[in-house]
Write a structure and sequence with these properties.
The complex is a heterodimer of chains A (299) and B (694). Chain A is built from 12 helices and no strands. With 299 residues, chain A is mainly α. Chain A has a single domain, classed as Orthogonal Bundle (MetI-like fold), CATH 1.10.3720.10. In chain A, helix 4 runs parallel beside helix 7, helix 5 crosses helix 7 and helix 7 packs across helix 9. The longest helix of chain A is centred in the last third of the chain and has 38 residues. Chain A is elongated and about 75 Å long. Among the domains of chain B are: 89 residues, no CATH class; 228 residues, 3-Layer(aba) Sandwich (Rossmann fold), CATH 3.40.50.300; 76 residues, no CATH class. Helix content of chain B is 36%, strand content 19%. Chain B has 28 helices and 23 strands. In chain B, the strands form 4 sheets. In chain B, strands 5-6-7-3-8-9-11-10 form an 8-stranded mixed β-sheet, with helices on both faces. An 8-stranded mixed β-sheet of chain B has the order 17-18-19-14-20-21-23-22, sandwiched between helices. Chain B is globular and about 75 Å long. Classes of the chains: A mainly alpha (299), B alpha/beta (694). At the A-B interface, helix 8 and helix 9 of A face helix 18, helix 19 and helix 21 of B.
Chain lengths: 299, 694
C-alpha cells in the first residue's frame, strides 16, 4: 500500500522503534546468529539449573563403575573414578561461566572507560599510556596468568582479577580507536563549546557511540577468556579437583582417550559449543549494530 | 546510425526492501539525448538523478534491479553486455566524472600513470606514445606544467586540480558521452567557474555529449542546453535551458527556481513547502501533490503523464500546467523575495581588534635559533558586530572564517589582539569562561549529521543546554524543549526520534533549537545551510531571520555562497587567506567599487540565468599560505598593478563611512573598471522584458 507523504510540518509516518528492538530485528535475520544465541542461552540455562537436575553426585567415587561406556543409566558414561560424566559435564561449566563472565565485565568496563578517556584526552597522557599498553600486549598472556596464579594461588578472586586485568588491555586499544572516530565530530565540538564537563562528554556523548564496539568486544573477549580459563584448569592452575570443570576433566581424562574416549569428548563438546555459540552470536550482534543502521540508511 | 544516441524508455529501477516489497527509485523515466547534446539533470537529493546517470553506464547500486524499461546507447543495451563488453563501453564510449575526484583517483599511483592506464586499456597505445598523449590531455584540462603534474600523486594536488585530472582521465578514452555527477560540488566558486568553463570548451571542441547531474541550478544554467527536472524518481519537466529558467511549466520547477537566493535580488527567497517523499512512499496520483498549491482532487488520484507543453520541446508532467504557465514567472519570482526585518542597535556586541590566530607555534629549537614566527593563519582582524546585526564572513575554503568563529567560541586561542563580547574578555578558552558567558554564545554547525549525536534522541539533545545553563526541573525542561520544537516548527512528537530518522532540514532545525535553548545573545552560524537542499535552505534562513527579529540575537554567519549572503546579511566581511579584504554593508559590498577579490567571487558565482558566462578573473589555484609581504591577494589578483602589491601592505580605503576596501588601486579607478566589467550580466528585470517581448 502506498502512503501519501505528508507536508513537512505534519508528522511524518515514521515507525518508532528503540535501538534495542531495531538491533534485535536485524539479529533475527541472521541464522548463524540465532543458532549461536540459542546455544549460549542453552548453556546458561543448564549452568543455572544443573545442581537441581543432575542424576548423580558429581564427586561420588565408585571403583566398580570405572570407565563405563555411555548407557541408559550413565548417558555419557563414567570416568576413571567411576563418576558420572553426564553429571560432571552439566556442572562443569558453572564455575567457568561465572568467573569468566565477571572477569569479562570487569575487563570491558575498565578497558573501555580508559580507552575512551585516552581517545578523548589525546596528547602526552595518551601517548604514554598507550606505550605501556603496547608493551603489555606484546607479552604472552598465559605466562603472566600462570605466574600470578602460582604466586597468589588460584582462588576465584585472584582468577577474576588477573583475567579481568589482562583481557582489559586489548579493550583499551579497541575503545580508544573507536573513540578517535568520534572525537573530531562536530557534536563533540558542540559539547566542548557549550562548556560541558569532560566526564559528561565521555559518558554522555562518547560512550553511547562506542557502546556497539564494546558490546562486540565483550562477546569476543568472553569466548577467549573461557578458553584461557579452561587452559588454566587443564594445566592445573584453575579449579582444583574434585570440583567438576571442563578444562580439568579434559586434562584428567586425556590419558583415557584410547579406551574411554567419552570421558574427554563430552566436556570438549560442551566447551567447544559454548565458545562457538558466543562467537556466532557476537558476529551477528556486530552486524546488527552496523553504524549505517543508526543513520537510518536503507540496507 | 539511425539509432538515437541515448534513449531511455520507461526505465524503472527498484530494490527490494526488508519487508520484501519493491521500492522504485526511478519510475518510468524516458529520455532522449542527441549526439553532442548537453542535458542537465536537476533534482533534490533522493530524486534518483544519480541512479539514472549510473544506469547509462550500465551500473546499478547493489541490490537494485531494472524492473521495467530499457536503456539504449546507440542501440546497445548496457545491461545486456557481458563484463568485457561493459568494460569497453565504460571509460571508452561513455565516461564518468564523479563528484569526489580525491576519492576516485588511486592514491598510490602517479596521476600521469593513471591516465596512461586508461589510454592503454582503451586504445592499445603503449610507451612513449601513451605518455605523450597523457601529457597533452593534462595540458588540455589546463593544468599548469603538465610534465611536473604527470609525476605527482593525487594528494599533492588541490581539489580543483584533482578534478581536472579526473576530467583528463575521462577524456582519455575519447568518450562520446560524459556522465558528470556533481563534479563541482565541494569546490570553491572560483575553481568551479574555471572548471565549468573548461568543460564547456571541451564539449564544444570534441563534440562530446554531456549528462550533467547537479542540484545547483546556477551550474545547470551554465553548462546545459536542455534540462530535465526530476522529482521522486520521475522526470517532471524537460525543456530547453532558456525555457526552464524563464517559462517553467511545472509547479515544482517553479518552486525550486523561486527558492534559490539570487545575487540580483535582496531578501530571502520563498521556501518550497514540505519535503519530497521517500522512495516508495508516494501516493497513487502526482507525487508532488502534498507540496503543490495547484493540487486538487484529480492530482491525488490520477498520476499525470509527461505531455508536450507550450514551448517547442517542452514536456511537463502536470494536470494543471496550462494554469501554471499562465502566471508570468518573472513576476512570480519578483514577489518571491522578502526582506527580513529586524532592528540593529548601535551597541557593539563583539569587538575584535588586531586579532592574530595561528595553529602552529615555533618549537623550542626554532625559537632558540631565532627563527621568526610563521605567518599567522588569521591575521590583523579588526571587526565590530552590533547588537541584533547579522555579519557575514565570506571567503573561499582556507580563508580563516571558521578559525575566527571558533576563536570567538573559545575553542581556539588567539596569538595576539583582543576579543571582547560585551564586557567579557574572550581571550580565554571555553574551559575558563564563566557559565553565563558560555550560555550567551552558541554555535550552529554546517552539517547536522555531524553536529547531532546519532545516539541521542531529540529530547536528549535539547536537554543538554537546558540542564547545563538553567536550573530547571525535569518537567520544566520537558516543557521548554516542546516549546523550542514548536518554535522551529517541529511538533512535540519529534522529541523521541533519533537524528537518523529525520531529514536534513529537520536535523538542522533541531540543531537551531539546541542553540536557542541556551537563550543566547550571539549565535555563530558556520555554513548552516550548505549541507541542505536548495528548497530547504530558504526555510532555514526564514527561521533564523524570525528568531532574530523575535529575540534580537546577533549572528555571525559564515558562508561561501554570495547570493545567500545577499539574502540574509546586514554587513559582510570578505576574507582572503585569513586577512580582511573588504568590510561593508551588504549593499556596499554588492555594488562597485569592490575589492578585486570580492569582484572575483561575485563574477565566479553561478547564477540561475542561462546565457551568462562569467568573466574569469585571476587564476583558480588556491594558495597554501599567505605571502610574507605585501597584499595577501597579490598572486591571484586580476587587477594587479605591479611590484607595489608584492612589497607593501595595501592601505584601507574608505568610500563611505563603514565601508572599507584594502587595496592599492584608488577607489575611482576600481569603480570605473568594475562597472564596465559587470555590464554584460543581465539583471532580472531585463530578463522579464525579454520574456514578454517573445
Amino acid at each position: 500500500m502506498a502512503v501519501v507523504a505528508p507536508a513537512s510540518e505534519k508528522p511524518a509516518p515514521i515507525r518508532r522503534r528503540s535501538r534495542l528492538s531495531e538491533t534485535w530485528l536485524y539479529m533475527r535475520q541472521s541464522k548463524s546468529g540465532m543458532l549461536g544465541l540459542t546455544i549460549l542461552v542453552f548453556h546458561i540455562l543448564i549452568a543455572l539449573s544443573s545442581p537441581l537436575i543432575v542424576p548423580f553426585d558429581p564427586t561420588e567415587i565408585s571403583a566398580s563403575l570405572k570407565n563405563l561406556s555411555p548407557s541408559g543409566e550413565h548417558l555419557f558414561g563414567t570416568d576413571q573414578f567411576g563418576r558420572d560424566v553426564f553429571t560432571r559435564v552439566l556442572l562443569g561449566g558453572r564455575i567457568a561461566l561465572a568467573i569468566t563472565l565477571t572477569a569479562t565485565v570487569m575487563a570491558v568496563t575498565w578497558g573501555g572507560t580508559l580507552g575512551i578517556l585516552l581517545g578523548f584526552l589525546g596528547g602526552r597522557i595518551d601517548e604514554a599510556v598507550m606505550r605501556v599498553v603496547d608493551a603489555l600486549l606484546a607479552a604472552p598472556y598465559i605466562l603472566f596468568l600462570l605466574l600470578i596464579v602460582s604466586a597468589l594461588g588460584s582462588s576465584n578472586r585472584v582468577l577474576i582479577f588477573t583475567l579481568g586485568f589482562f583481557y582489559g588491555i586489548a579493550v583499551v586499544r579497541v575503545a580508544r580507536a573507536a573513540t578517535l572516530d568520534f572525537v573530531a565530530r562536530d557534536f563533540i565540538t558542540a559539547a566542548r563549546a557549550r562548556g560541558e564537563r569532560r566526564m559528561t562528554i565521555v559518558l554522555r556523548e562518547l560512550l553511547p557511540n562506542v557502546m556497539d564496539i564494546l558490546l562486540v568486544e565483550f562477546a569476543m573477549r568472553w569466548s577467549w577468556m573461557l578458553l584461557a580459563f579452561s587452559s588454566l584448569s587443564f594445566l592445573g592452575f584453575g579449579v582444583s579437583p574434585p570440583t567438576p570443570d571442563w578444562g580439568l576433566m579434559i586434562a584428567e581424562s586425556r590419558k583415557a582417550l584410547q579406551f574411554a574416549p567419552w570421558t574427554a569428548i563430552f566436556p570438549m563438546i560442551a566447551l567447544g559449543t559454548l565458545v562457538i555459540g558466543i562467537n556466532l552470536a557476537a558476529d551477528a550482534v556486530a552486524k546488527a549494530l552496523g553504524l549505517d543502521r543508526t543513520q537510518g540508511a536503507p540496507v | 546510425m539511425n539509432e538515437p544516441f541515448v534513449e531511455v524508455k520507461d526505465l524503472t529501477i527498484g530494490y527490494r526492501n526488508r519487508q520484501g516489497q519493491i521500492v522504485n527509485v526511478l519510475r518510468g523515466v524516458s529520455l532522449m539525448m542527441p549526439r553532442g547534446g548537453a542535458l542537465g539533470l536537476v533534482g533534490e537529493s533522493g530524486s534518483g538523478k544519480s541512479t539514472l546517470g549510473m544506469a547509462l553506464l550500465g551500473h546499478l547500486r547493489a541490490g537494485s534491479q531494472v524492473q521495467a524499461g530499457t536503456v539504449r546507447f546507440e542501440g546497445v543495451d548496457p545491461f545486456a553486455l557481458n563484463p568485457a563488453e561493459l568494460r569497453a563501453l565504460r571509460g571508452g564510449r561513455i565516461a564518468l566524472i564523479p563528484q569526489n575526484a580525491a576519492e576516485s583517483l588511486t592514491p598510490t599511483m602517479r596521476v600521469g600513470d593513471q591516465i596512461v592506464e586508461v589510454l592503454q586499456f582503451n586504445r592499445i597505445l603503449v610507451g612513449a606514445e601513451a605518455r605523450d598523449l597523457a601529457l597533452e590531455l593534462l595540458g588540455q584540462v589546463r593544468l599548469p606544467q603538465p610534465e611536473a603534474m604527470f609525476t605527482r600523486y593525487p594528494h599533492e594536488l588541490s581539489g580543483g586540480q584533482q578534478q581536472r585530472v579526473a576530467v583528463a582521465k575521462a577524456l582519455a578514452g575519447e568518450p562520446e558521452l560524459l556522465v558528470l555527477d556533481e563534479p563541482t560540488t565541494g569546490l570553491d566558486v572560483t575553481t568551479q567557474a574555471h572548471l565549468l568553463d573548461l568543460l564547456a570548451e571541451i564539449v564544444a571542441r570534441m563534440g562530446t555529449a554531456m549528462l550533467y547531474i547537479s542540484h545547483d541550478l546556477g551550474v545547470i544554467a551554465r553548462v546545459s542546453d536542455r534540462v530535465a527536472v526530476m522529482y521522486a524518481g520521475e522526470i517532471v519537466e524537460v525543456a530547453a535551458v532558456a525555457d526552464i529558467f524563464a517559462r517553467p511549466a511545472h509547479p515544482y520547477t517553479r518552486g525550486l527556481l523561486a527558492s534559490i537566493p539570487r545575487l540580483t535580488q535582496v531578501g530571502i527567497p520563498k521556501a518550497l513547502q514540505g519535503q519530497p517523499p521517500t522512495p516508495g512512499e508516494h501516493g497513487a496520483g502526482c507525487s508532488f501533490t502534498p507540496r503543490c498549491s495547484f493540487a486538487d482532487g484529480t492530482c491525488e488520484t490520477v498520476a499525470p503523464t509527461l505531455d508536450a507543453a507550450a514551448q517547442p520541446g517542452q514536456l511537463v508532467r502536470c494536470h494543471h500546467w496550462q494554469t501554471v504557465a499562465k502566471i508570468e514567472f518573472s513576476q512570480e519570482l519578483q514577489q518571491a523575495f522578502h526582506k527580513a526585518v529586524h532592528t540593529v542597535e548601535p551597541e557593539p556586541v563583539v569587538e575584535l581588534a588586531g586579532v592574530d590566530i595561528a595553529y602552529t607555534r615555533r618549537g623550542l629549537i626554532q625559537r632558540l635559533r631565532g627563527l621568526p614566527e610563521p605567518p599567522a593563519t588569521v591575521s590583523d582582524i579588526t571587526l565590530t558586530v552590533h547588537k541584533g546585526e547579522t555579519l557575514a564572513l565570506v571567503g573561499e575554503s582556507g580563508s580563516g572564517k571558521t578559525t575566527i568563529v571558533r576563536t570567538i567560541a573559545g575553542l581556539l586561542l588567539p596569538r595576539m589582539g583582543s576579543l571582547k563580547f560585551k564586557e567579557y574578555d574572550l581571550n580565554v578558552g571555553v574551559d575558563r569562561r564563566p557559565l553565563e558567558l558560555r550560555q550567551q554564545i552558541q554555535l550552529i554547525f554546517q552539517n547536522p549529521d555531524a553536529s547531532l549525536n546519532p545516539r541521542h534522541t531529540v529530547a536528549e539533545i535539547l536537554d543538554q543546554p537546558l540542564r547545563l545553563y538553567f536550573n530547571l526541573s525535569r518537567s520544566e525542561r520537558r516543557e521548554r524543549s516542546i516549546e523550542l520544537l514548536e518554535r522551529v516548527r517541529l511538533g512535540p512528537h519529534y522529541r523521541l526520534r533519533y537524528p537518523g530518522q529525520l531529514s536534513g532540514g529537520e536535523k538542522q532545525r533541531v540543531a537551531i533549537a539546541r542553540a536557542f535553548a541556551a537563550e543566547p545573545q550571539l549565535v555563530l552560524c558556520d555554513e548552516v545551510t550548505s549541507a541542505l537542499d536548495v528548497s530547504v535552505q530558504a526555510a532555514v534562513l526564514d527561521l533564523l531571520a524570525e528568531l532574530q527579529a523575535e529575540r534580537g540575537v546577533t549572528y555571525i554567519f559564515i558562508a561561501h555562497d554570495l547570493a545567500l549572503v545577499h539574502a540574509f546579511a546586514d554587513r559582510v566581511a570578505v576574507l582572503y587567506q585569513g586577512r580582511l579584504c573588504e568590510v561593508g554593508s551588504t549593499d556596499e559590498i554588492y555594488t562597485p567599487p569592490h575589492h578585486p577579490y570580492t569582484e572575483t567571487l561575485l563574477a565566479a558565482a553561478p547564477r540561475p540565468v542561462p546565457g551568462l558566462r562569467p568573466h574569469m578573473l585571476g587564476s583558480d589555484v588556491p594558495e597554501l599560505a599567505p605571502p610574507p609581504r605585501g597584499c595577501p591577494f597579490q598572486r591571484r589578483c586580476p587587477r594587479r598593478i605591479g611590484s607595489i602589491c608584492d612589497e607593501e601592505a595595501p592601505p584601507w580605503r574608505v568610500p563611505v563611512e563603514g565601508h572599507m576596501i584594502r587595496c592599492h588601486i584608488p577607489l575611482d579607478e576600481l569603480e570605473t573598471a568594475q562597472v564596465s566589467a559587470a555590464e554584460h550580466l543581465i539583471p532580472l528585470e531585463s530578463l522579464s522584458s525579454s520574456v514578454s517581448s517573445n
